[in-house]
Predict the structure.
Amino acid sequence: MFEHRPVLNGDAFFTESEEKREKWKRAVARQHGHYHSKKSGVPVQHLVTALEMARILQHLKSAQTGPDAVGKDDVFVCDADQNESHTCSGKMVPPLVTHATIYSKRLEQIMMETELMLVQNENCIDHRGCEPYWRSMIQPLIDLLMLTSKGRKQVAKLAGNSVNLMTFGCFQLYCLSRLKLKKHASPAKKTKPSNAAEDDGMDLSQFVGVIDLEADDSESARDGERAV
């Protein structure tokens, strides 16, 4: 299972309806002092601060240079709230923080808070044909919070403070699959670290409370002698 590679890129999570997105964009633009009618479109510049826009341009500039330069129609997603040195950008959604502002180059869109929750596997979006059991249990609360500016910030904070349990579970399984039992003479005896080229597993003696297998065997033998 660890040889599989993800097939969903960052743009796959921009799934909110056009109607809700335009309404959301007008509300966010008003917070920045820009007022738009229903007929006029809202540019990205009116959805972010001047500093966030500068970061977006810096991310794009770096992505369009070098041997792995991003093409015009290639997927590229970045976080406008973080400098290049503090985040990673590319085809996948970068690690979410509590104040993330995710931007898609190809779509020229900012990710909504409900879409941030979708990244964390909490489906709070009314997709067509979506069965009720695929929807998040907290969707009614998220819908209520999305009505106000303060509430939307709380949703983004919730997404940044969350962790995808299935992804974390796979990480735990990977760590467990790399463990390798090793016998040692005594718990007090320090063992030299094994060569990484010769040992593919992790040494359990590195962890506190690891059981000494040989010591257990000797204690069991003594208990057997007493019983006799």
The helical segments are 18-31, 50-63, 113-119, 139-145, 149-160, 165-177, 213-227. The chain has seven helices and five strands. The two ends are 50 Å apart (CA to CA). The CA atoms of residues 122 and 137 lie 8 Å apart.
